[in-house]
Amino acid sequence: MTGLRDLVALGGWDTRWVDAMPTGLMKPLSGSGARAMMIDTMNTFGVDSFQGRLAATMQGSTETTFYVLAVYFGAAGIRHTRYALACGLAADVAGISAAIAVAYWFYA
User: Fold this and answer.
1) Helix intervals (H) in the chain
2) Residue 35 and residue 14: Cα distance in Å, rounded?
3) How many whole angstroms separate alpha carbon 33 and alpha carbon 19?
4) Per-residue confidence at 82, pLDDT binned at 50, 70, 90?
5) What pLDDT is stored for residue 93 in this prediction?
6) Which residue among 16, 23, 51, 106 has its CA within the 20 to 30 Å range from the CA of 1?
7) In the 8-state DSSP scheme, what is residue 11?
8) Is residue 108 within 8 Å of residue 57, measured between CB atoms?
9) Is pLDDT at 79 greater than 90 in this prediction?
10) What are the sequence ranges of the domains in the chain?
11) With 90 as the cut, is the pLDDT of residue 50 above it?
């Protein structure tokens, strides 16, 4: 996160959103892991902080992509997922980007 923060600061942008990125990066892998990251962000910065609200928004804006592919596709018997992973991760990137934009719109 330090490298991302330095890159964002180098561009002259606000770096507060970087503190909530662990939640956004964990969410495609594990919903409970992302929840733990969100709670850690809230414990560190406060529940009503920009970072805490952004982490909560990210939690609701993305999906556990790998879980969906493994469990739901397996239960339905889908063997050839082809572009499902790329589409799911692209949707996660869109959800994270939208969460950042909405958080700045409402909470900044």
Assistant:
1) 2-10, 21-26, 31-45, 50-61, 65-67, 73-76, 84-107
2) 24
3) 16
4) confident
5) 96
6) 106
7) T
8) no
9) no
10) 19-107
11) yes
